[in-house]
Write a structure and sequence with these properties.
Length: about 230
């Protein structure tokens, strides 16, 4: 089924996944994933040497198709290609570890994303998990405090004053949203051939993309700081 070309060309391994609930229901079923991956690999001029699939949750990193695909990639130095990133794994730390281990990953729905962009997306996914955890802990702590006040005093009390921790969380979430918007814009710029932080800053200003503070103009330093934030620096 696969046509081998010269060894100087890059190899690719396709990986597909659906959960049992998705079968026959998702718009990105196995056949659709396969078609998108094959089209992407062909557009890159790579050689598709193997394809693996799983019917399992993306949180299960032990699934056989996933492990077999990783083994093949390591044996051949091939690129692991999926329809989208969550078809590979839903665990941000797994994706980050794969990239750290030197496994090159691509998603057909992000054709302009290179290894750097994949690292940024992985860092953003991990940060989102941390924010969700922080919000949950803050909500539980607030509920506990409200319960203690209501149970210990039936009299009137004014509304609670500003919560420094909550305010800090809001500021951090705002910064993360700005970073997320920037990553999307940077991906588009990469796809258009724009490289370098200074060139990106000029393009962002031209497109009217707001800075993280919502004022002033983008500079190469501003771009560098936001990209550093997404990489967990």
């Amino acid at each position: 089924m696969f046509h081998h070309r010269q060894t100087s060309e890059r190899y690719a391994v396709g990986l597909y996944r659906v959960s049992t609930a998705e079968q026959g229901q998702s718009g990105l079923g196995l056949e659709a994933q396969q078609a998108s991956v094959r089209a992407f690999v062909a557009a890159q001029g790579w050689t598709l040497v193997a394809e693996f699939s799983d019917v399992a949750s993306g949180k299960d990193d032990r699934r056989p198709g996933f492990q077999a695909a990783l083994l093949k990639c390591r044996q051949l130095g091939a690129v692991l290609v999926a329809g989208r990133l969550d078809r590979i794994t839903r665990r941000a730390h797994t994706l980050s570890q794969l990239l750290e281990d030197g496994v090159s990953i691509r998603a057909a729905d992000m054709p302009g994303a290179d290894d750097l962009m994949m690292r940024i997306y992985a860092a953003m996914a991990q940060k989102e998990r941390e924010l969700i955890s922080a919000r949950t802990k803050a909500a539980l702590a607030a509920a506990k405090v409200r319960g203690a006040v209501l149970g210990g005093d039936r009299g009137y009390r004014p509304a609670a004053g500003p919560d420094a921790a909550a305010a800090a969380l809001v500021r951090r979430e705002t910064a993360e949203r700005a970073a997320h918007r920037l990553v999307l814009e940077v991906e588009r710029l990469y796809a258009e051939g724009v490289e370098g932080q200074a060139a990106m800053a000029r393009a962002l200003n031209k497109r009217g993309v707001p800075t993280p503070q919502g004022r002033g103009a983008w500079t190469h330093t501003t771009v560098a700081r936001v990209l550093a934030r997404t990489r967990g620096a």
